[in-house]
Amino acid sequence: MLHLNSSRSISDPSDPDAQLTANNGEYLVNISLGTPPFPIVAIADTGSDIIWTQCKPCTDCYKQVAPLFDPKSSSSYRTVSCSSNVIGCGHDNAGTFSPKGSGIVGLGGGPASLVSQLGSSIGGKFSYCMVPYAAAKPTSTMNFGTNAVVSGNGVLSTPLISDPSQPTFYFLQLEAVSVGSKKIAFQGSSIGGSGNIIIDSGTTLTLVPTDFFSQLSDAVETQVSGGTKTSDPEGFFSLCYDKVVCLAFYANDQLSIYGNVAQQNFLIGYDLPKQTLSFKPTDCTNT
């Protein structure tokens, strides 16, 4: 059993919400699992479907600060087949995970995701507002249902493009990126007619084809005046300035990804029945 918050004073108390916390390249969402509810903090990831957490006994788990979920302590725990849409227990886990997190909450378009499992109760709607990593207040709210509708002045919407062969991903059609007065056309790579870039809250950087990245870097370098270029101490980023402020894009000729740094300080709403994605410039520390 999975639990979300419903403690805020909102127009419809049946619409859940959850706290979202910026954490060094990722955003963690607070949820609870089991009976009685056991709190966990996991990566909010629109680029995957499965909901899972590290569980006892752990054969090989990455280090996490919070206690491990113990299935034996939950009366609603059941062993089910791998083809079932349930919440998973990880006993042998690898990857570059922060010790502050204990798993992943998949928010993708596939049948196993949290959004799909909540189903008609949220009307296929959810939204989030990602605070900058360096914000003094690192938290904001993720909404589901009627409170996830993004409206008002400054809202722009674009089609969400689905691909039945890759139901997890939310595809977009990116036409261009503007740097100052320069507009750089984006070709990307259409995948089965499903747009040319995916939006992914679980990926930090925005990944674009090498040719486009070169044009973008040149345009940014031309636009930035008075800044002193410097090298990235980690040797990862190619364009950095002064106190090591770097362009958060990376060249990748496989799948193009609209990462979470570029999503910061926008209220972003997903309306799956209408197949639209809406953006509203917002100070996310106030949400």
From TrEMBL:
InterPro entries: Aspartic_peptidase_A1, Aspartic_peptidase_AS, Pepsin-like_plant, PEPTIDASE_A1, Peptidase_aspartic_dom_sf, Plant_Aspart_Prot_A1, TAXi_C, TAXi_N. Keywords: Aspartyl protease, Glycoprotein, Hydrolase, Protease. GO terms for biological process: proteolysis. GO terms for cellular component: extracellular region. Transmembrane segments: none annotated. Pfam families: TAXi_C, TAXi_N. Residues 27-287 form the Peptidase A1 domain. GO terms for molecular function: aspartic-type endopeptidase activity. Belongs to the peptidase A1 family. This is Peptidase A1 domain-containing protein. The lineage of its organism: Eukaryota, Viridiplantae, Streptophyta, Embryophyta, Tracheophyta.
